Amino acid sequence: MQGSGIKEVLSLIYAPNKILIGHACARAVIAHTLLHLTLATIISKELVIDDDDMDANLQNTIENVKNNTISYNDIENCDEKTEALLDQCNKKLKQYEGRGSTGKLWIQYFHMVSIAKEFIRAERMGD
Q: Which domain of life is it from (predicted)?
């Protein structure tokens, strides 16, 4: 973790000695979620969405999420266009992972926060 920048980023958000050792759990979850969102935004900016149908499909899905008219299971049961975008995202993650030990650490961190978010979602939904 030394030199990766994770401590510096989290220290900008919250007190450095509190968030990395387990104090203030709610703040830690928020900080890790914000960092996860930032990584996802960086990755998504490099994705190529060339198909107009895919773009319209994504826009509809985003609007449905905003309006709470779509369930989590509907999103999980995605169609082939969304599956292609997911494959592209996974390839981009592998590409970042291959850039060196720091990139590998950030992608591992991304996956760990994804698992934590999935656990929190399951606890809240009763799954």
A: Eukaryota
